[in-house]
Write a structure and sequence with these properties.
With 209 residues, the chain is of the alpha+beta class. Helices cover 50% and strands 8% of the residues. It is built from eight helices and four strands; from the N terminus they run βαβαββαααααα.
Length: 209
């Protein structure tokens, strides 16, 4: 059964919290937005630092549980709404690969992208959490070539994370939109949740001036 506790999402438009908002929309979950105006510096105010000392969104308050970090939120929220079918069950053989690709995004792919964007030396392969940029992107491309979604034929909550991220990353030219990535991004952009989130963010940005 779905949770009866209120889900509160701390969100700022067009930031990493967009993927969490998209997941809530995909899940059909009831939620309340608490908008953080990052241009006004609200993420550095004591009230929000009590939520996340790093001053980052997304964050979710669910009853007494306070959860941060994109990857954790994908796992937490998708498991909270099993009826939506976006999270393979623990006994499902797809559960391991599903968790792998969620954590791969946070532990390997995003650090590789940030290092490349900042022209920062990641250090030796032995020290780098992802090894090297080309191997990291190559692993993603090889996985996407196996099926329409990150876990093959089945759309999961992991695709909300990857679809949102790759839309931005390819848009900024940080990863070459090779055909398999371009097709994946276009497939993601056709989902109704993407248009709904874009409309929500546009309204919030308009209201904030």
């Amino acid at each position: 059964m779905a949770t009866t506790e209120k889900i509160v999402l701390f969100h700022s438009p067009q930031t990493r919290s967009t993927s969490t908002l998209g997941l809530l929309e995909e899940l059909g979950a009831p939620y309340e937005l608490r908008v953080i105006n990052m241009k006004a510096g609200e993420q550095r105010e004591p009230a929000f630092l009590a939520v996340n000392p790093l001053g980052k969104v997304p964050a979710v308050l669910h009853g007494d549980a306070l959860v941060t970090e994109q990857a954790a939120l994908v796992i937490y929220l998708a498991d909270l709404f099993p009826e939506a079918g976006l999270a393979p069950a623990v006994a499902d053989p797809l559960r391991g690969p599903y968790l792998r690709w969620i954590v791969f995004y946070a532990a390997c792919f995003e650090p590789a992208i940030i290092d490349r964007a900042l022209k920062r030396d990641p250090g030796t392969r032995a020290m780098s959490p992802y090894g090297d940029f080309d191997s990291t992107v190559g692993a993603l491309v090889a996985q996407l070539a196996r099926g329409p979604y990150i876990c093959g034929d089945r759309f999961t909550a992991a695709d909300v994370l990857w679809g949102t991220a790759l839309t931005w990353i390819t848009g900024f030219g940080l990863v070459e939109p090779v055909p398999v990535i371009a097709r994946y991004v276009e497939r993601w952009k056709q989902r109704p949740s993407v248009a709904r989130v874009a409309a929500i963010d546009a309204k919030l940005l308009s209201a904030s001036g």
